[in-house]
Fold this sequence. Notes:
Elements (H helix, E strand, L loop, with lengths): L11 H13 L4 H15 L14 H16 L13
Amino acid sequence: MAQSMINIRMDTDEKKSFEEVCNQLGLTITAAFKMFAKKVVREKRIPFDLSLDPFYSESNMKHLEKVTSEIDSGKAKLSEHELAKV
């Protein structure tokens, strides 16, 4: 089986932390990445959840722009949220 080289750039502190965890698991960084790659190929998916913070979704940003506009124009009715009532 032919071998290929992959180079990955990452933050130095993050690499050190990752290497420490791998060592605690009895793995090298190379072995960990090979395990990740094999799982991706086998399952045809990234083996963990990827998500974006819904706060920055397009619909929420539009809502926030609308609310901000209403506040700026004096049309907004502001009220205390029930979670703020302690």
